[in-house]
Structures are given as C-alpha cells and as structure tokens.
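User: Hello! My lab partner asked me to get a predicted holo structure for this protein. The small molecule is zinc ion, SMILES included with the sequence. Please write out the structure tokens.
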Amino acid sequence: MSKLRRRNNKPEMAVRRLLYARGLRYRVCFRVPGQRRRTIDIAFVGARFAIYIDGCFWHGCPEHAHLPKANAGWWTRKIAMNKARDAAVNEQLAGLGWTVLRVWEHENPHAVVSKVVAALEGTGKEGPASRGERDTRKAPSASGRVHVCPSMEA
Ligand SMILES: [Zn+2]
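Assistant: Hello! Below are the structure tokens for the protein in complex with zinc ion.
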C-alpha cells in the first residue's frame, strides 16, 4: 500500500533538513508563477531555482516504477500523464527563467544537496553567504510532521 501513496515525503524532508543545515533557505510548495494548481517542492525564489523530488512510482522512475498488474493500461497512461505534466512544468518554469532540478526520491539526500549547492553557486544569486530571502520559520524537525502540498497530485 505504501507504494501507492501519493506522496512519500521522507526523501523531501531529508533533503530539506540538509539544505537548512547548510544555511540555505527555501520555500516549500511555492506556487509556479501564473499557475494556480502547480507548486514547486522546494524553491529558491531569489535564484529562481526549483527542486522537485519525484516519487519513483508516480513519476515513473526507470528503476522502481513497477506498475500493478491489474489495470496495467490505466496505470501506464496515468504515469505517462504525470510525466507529461512534469515536462510541461519544466517548460513553464524554464520560460520564466527558472532552473529546474528533478531528482528521484531514491537518490541519496546528501548527493542531492551537493547537486543543489553546485547549481546554486552556478546561478551566483544565492548561497549561505548571500541569502536572497528571509525565512524565519522553524527548521524542519527530524521528527516533525510530514509536510504535504495541499494542491495538485490529481
Ligand atoms: Zn527510483
């Protein structure tokens, strides 16, 4: 059953905690500009840098997306639609001058954070030394509630 959950946010939380620990500040569930129903998992607004932690099942990870045998055709179409939507969001964001990084939930959070830091340094707009924005909210706690975006995932 757990593999059918719409969002498994543990990998996202792990990445967020590591980013926070590095002094990076970000927004979560940040709305894609001009889109009412689309959000960015982790957004560095100043740097226009978007991170998506894609669930292996829902986004069709080549290694882990084993479709249920029942209704295989329906699932295939469903996952294909999700992937098409991902691609559309990438395009929208790119058109707005955003850089998009998509990672799989199975990826090592430390490796993900290294990628993010390198990419942010590439943008030259954001980093621990020059924070583009303030975030006074509390750090995500290790035992904290799993955060779920209220929108999308339809
Ligand atoms: Zn995977």
